[in-house]
């Protein structure tokens, strides 16, 4: 195991240099801080001081990563069971893994659901990494909802609001980061009523740019239509 004081900054900078040009952002965190918040069944079986790196994408990812990826694919032979955006994520996150042959890196994608259970809870990971505040029911005082009403939490980015995707996490299994400072995420909605509104109806909120229309159309389409959209992009 390597202590990270000397290697942590260059390591994170290297991950940034690989991913940021494509519209991704990366944030380190200590896995123990993630594990201590969540139920046992979601915990990652690594020592508490293990280095995790959260990856999220901002709207630029569509033009910088997805469209170029789509243009490179052979759509006549596309496997119709594969989600093009997921394949794009696999491609880019694998580039990072391959750039660290000296380390034991596990890539966990947000869409991985072995046995129907998310492998990684990216909203909690993004919160402990200080990247994005994860607003949950528990963050609202005097809750206006029934106890049995399901309210999903929302990660709300200080700049892009909801126009982000929390894509996954790298676990550097052989890198310990006992001295990594914990950064609190920016609480951009300290007001109770704003939190209620966010959880009830995710809104646009002072954002510099939203997802492209085609990006949104993609996200809200079934797989068949997603592949059609990718084919349309390729031929445009
Ligand atoms: C399964 C899933 C769904 C399911 C169920 C949703 C759910 N939240 O359970 C369904 C299909 C309904 C769904 C729908 C959508 N989803 Co969804 N979904 C997921 C997925 C893959 C796993 C979520 C999960 O299983 N959570 C399990 C539950 C138990 O986790 P939890 O509620 O957060 O509870 C934990 C925390 O409370 C934590 N905890 C406890 N105490 C504390 C204290 C603190 C301080 C903290 C931080 C945490 C914490 O412990 C709990 C676990 O033990 C995630 C990606 C991922 N891998 O995380 C995306 C994800 C949550 N979905 C996302 C999106 C965008 C959507 C949709 C808008 C998609 C769409 N196009 O329609 C809809 C919106 C639904 C809605 N009304 O909000 C985004 C949310 C982004 C964001 N800004 O928050 C995610 C993160 C995917 C992504 N790429 O970014 N989704």
Jot down its keywords.
17% strand; alpha+beta; single chain; globular; 236 residues; five-stranded mixed sheet
What is the topology?
Elements: E1 2-3, H1 8-19, E2 24-30, H2 31-35, E3 50-57, H3 61-72, H4 84-98, E4 105-109, H5 122-128, E5 133-135, E6 154-156, E7 165-176, H6 192-200, H7 213-219, H8 223-235
Parallel strand pairs: 1-7
Antiparallel strand pairs: 2-3, 3-7, 4-7, 5-6
This protein binds cobalamin.
Structural description of this entry:
This protein has 236 residues and is α+β, with helices and mostly antiparallel strands. Helices cover 34% and strands 17% of the residues. The chain has helices at residues 8-19, 31-35, 61-72, 84-98, 122-128, 192-200, 213-219, 223-235, and strands at 2-3, 24-30, 50-57, 105-109, 133-135, 154-156, 165-176. The strands form two sheets. Strands 1, 2, 3, 4 and 7 form a five-stranded mixed β-sheet that branches. A two-stranded antiparallel sheet has the order 5-6. Helix 3 crosses helix 8. The N and C termini lie far apart (49 Å). The mean pLDDT is 93.
Task: Give a brief rundown of this model.
This protein has helices at 8-19, 31-35, 61-72, 84-98, 122-128, 192-200, 213-219, 223-235, and strands at 2-3, 24-30, 50-57, 105-109, 133-135, 154-156, 165-176. The chain is an alpha+beta fold and 236 residues long.
Q: Report helical residue fraction.
A: 25-40%
Order of helices and strands: EHEHEHHEHEEEHHH
Ions and ligands? cobalamin
Count the strands?
Answer: 7
Approximate strand percentage: 15-25%
* Oligomer type: single chain
Overall mean pLDDT: 93
Radius of gyration: 19 Å
Low-confidence segments: none
**3D shape:** globular
Structural class: alpha+beta
Largest sheet report: 5 strands, mixed
């Amino acid at each position: 195991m390597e202590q990270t004081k000397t290697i942590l900054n260059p390591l994170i900078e290297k991950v940034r240099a690989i991913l940021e040009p494509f519209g991704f952002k990366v944030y380190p965190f200590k896995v123990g801080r993630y594990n201590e918040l969540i139920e046992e069944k979601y915990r990652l079986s690594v020592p508490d001081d293990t280095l995790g790196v959260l990856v999220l994408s901002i709207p630029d990812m569509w033009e910088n990563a997805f469209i170029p990826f789509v243009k490179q694919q052979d759509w006549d032979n596309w496997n119709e069971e594969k989600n093009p955006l997921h394949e794009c994520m696999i491609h880019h996150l694998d580039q990072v893994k391959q750039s660290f042959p000296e380390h034991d890196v596990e890539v966990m994608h947000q869409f991985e659901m072995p046995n129907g259970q998310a492998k990684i809870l990216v909203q909690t990971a993004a919160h402990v990494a200080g990247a994005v505040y994860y607003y949950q029911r528990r963050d609202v005082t005097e809750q206006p909802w029934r106890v049995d009403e399901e309210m999903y939490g929302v990660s709300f980015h200080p700049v892009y609001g909801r126009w982000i995707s929390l894509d996954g996490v790298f676990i550097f299994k052989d890198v310990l980061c006992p001295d990594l400072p914990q950064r609190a995420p920016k609480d951009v909605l300290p007001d109770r009523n704003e939190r209620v509104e966010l959880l009830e109806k995710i809104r646009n909120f002072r954002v510099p740019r939203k997802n492209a229309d085609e990006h949104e159309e993609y996200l809200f389409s079934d797989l068949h239509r997603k592949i059609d959209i990718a084919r349309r992009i390729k031929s445009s």
